[in-house]
Backbone:
């Protein structure tokens, strides 16, 4: 009779394809957002002028409350995710912040320049707080009374700043140039966000085959600060991401907001800051830019090939091994995979398309994987082309 450990190992083999859905979390830049009713009368502005306004924004301080809702179109992961490794902390941000990729959550946010930020995730009567204060990063889980601490990385801001265009106009020119023939960028009217007047910047793919219907960013008319982010899928229904401020104040938060002392009796876990853990932190528009493709997957090392461009970019990987047969998976895993995947066939042979509302992946039976923010048919067409 198989041991529980053996069953878990066997089950994990079939859960691996499900991890493809996690790519969606990396392709979505979670800019706080939630539009309220209203249509303020604001001066006319072009897309280039609005991009310049965002780039010129010098917002260093703010505090507020916002809600974030994420709907990737996935069945429940309940009962399938592995338990946290022994000795790990329930306060570790690497684990806790993954909660934001599904469901609806309320958060409190405070910021005072690049060295002091605080985010508190509210879950009923429990709270989870993540605090960056100077050289320290603290995380506290009130439910388990556990604390996670590590030293913050620094010294990357100057390098990132040198790589950016010198003026807001130059940055706007670069954004519009990068959009090229694949992207439409327009101003889609105005809105009220957390009681403030805002312009709406609308980004849409011009290419057919993308799963992205539109990206809308509401920009504070006075400060140029992004206040709203909504990512919509061509499949319709609820937005994939709809996150936003319900209250916002640009005054400087009190210094005590970022002070932290481990509560009495709390378990404290020290973590080592991993190299690259904060990569991209100094690139506020990085998440948005990456929506149009997989910039880092150039295939130069032979492990990943890139097919297409812009919003219909597809990453192709060859595992060199046959894909696992889902019909041999444990029942609880098989049911999940059946809900997530569709059997497909074509000139390439046969395989399974694992679906979300944004990122889809085709795993062929001979071990090839095609991943992109494109429709399942676009993946099949890529596999049929033999590229």
Residues:
């Amino acid at each position: 009779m198989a041991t529980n450990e053996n069953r878990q190992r066997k089950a994990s083999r079939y859960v691996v394809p499900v991890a493809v859905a996690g790519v969606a979390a990396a392709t979505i830049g979670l800019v706080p957002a939630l539009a309220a009713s209203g249509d303020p009368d604001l001066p006319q502005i072009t897309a280039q002028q609005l991009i310049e306004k965002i780039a010129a924004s010098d917002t260093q301080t703010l505090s507020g409350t916002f809600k974030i809702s994420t709907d990737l179109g996935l069945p429940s992961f309940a009962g399938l995710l592995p338990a946290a490794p022994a000795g790990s902390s329930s306060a570790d941000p690497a684990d806790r912040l993954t909660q934001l990729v599904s469901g609806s959550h309320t958060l409190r946010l405070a910021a005072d320049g690049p060295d002091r930020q605080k985010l508190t995730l509210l879950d009923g009567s429990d709270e989870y707080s993540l605090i960056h204060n100077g050289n320290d990063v603290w995380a506290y889980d009130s439910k388990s009374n556990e604390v996670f601490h590590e030293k913050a990385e620094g010294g990357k801001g100057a390098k990132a700043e040198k790589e950016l265009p010198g003026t807001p106009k130059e940055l706007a020119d670069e954004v519009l140039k990068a959009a090229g023939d694949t992207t439409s960028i327009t101003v889609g009217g105005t809105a009220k966000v957390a009681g403030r007047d805002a312009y709406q910047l609308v980004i849409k793919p011009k290419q057919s085959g993308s799963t992205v219907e539109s990206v809308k960013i509401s920009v504070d008319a006075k400060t140029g600060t992004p206040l709203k982010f909504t990512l919509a899928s061509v499949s319709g229904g609820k937005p994939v991401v709809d996150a936003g401020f319900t209250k916002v104040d640009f005054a400087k938060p009190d210094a005590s907001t970022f002070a932290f002392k481990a509560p009495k009796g709390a378990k404290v876990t020290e973590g080592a800051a991993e190299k690259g853990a904060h990569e991209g932190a100094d690139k506020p528009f990085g998440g948005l830019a990456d929506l149009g493709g997989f910039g880092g997957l150039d295939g130069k090392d032979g492990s990943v090939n890139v097919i297409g461009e812009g919003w219909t970019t597809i990453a192709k990987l060859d595992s060199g091994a046959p894909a696992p047969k889902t019909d041999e998976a444990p029942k609880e895993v098989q049911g999940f995979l059946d809900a997530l995947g569709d059997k497909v066939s074509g000139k390439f042979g046969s395989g399974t398309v694992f679906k979300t509302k944004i990122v889809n992946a085709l795993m062929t039976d001979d071990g090839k994987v095609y991943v992109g923010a494109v429709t399942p048919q676009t993946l099949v067409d890529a596999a049929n082309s033999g590229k």
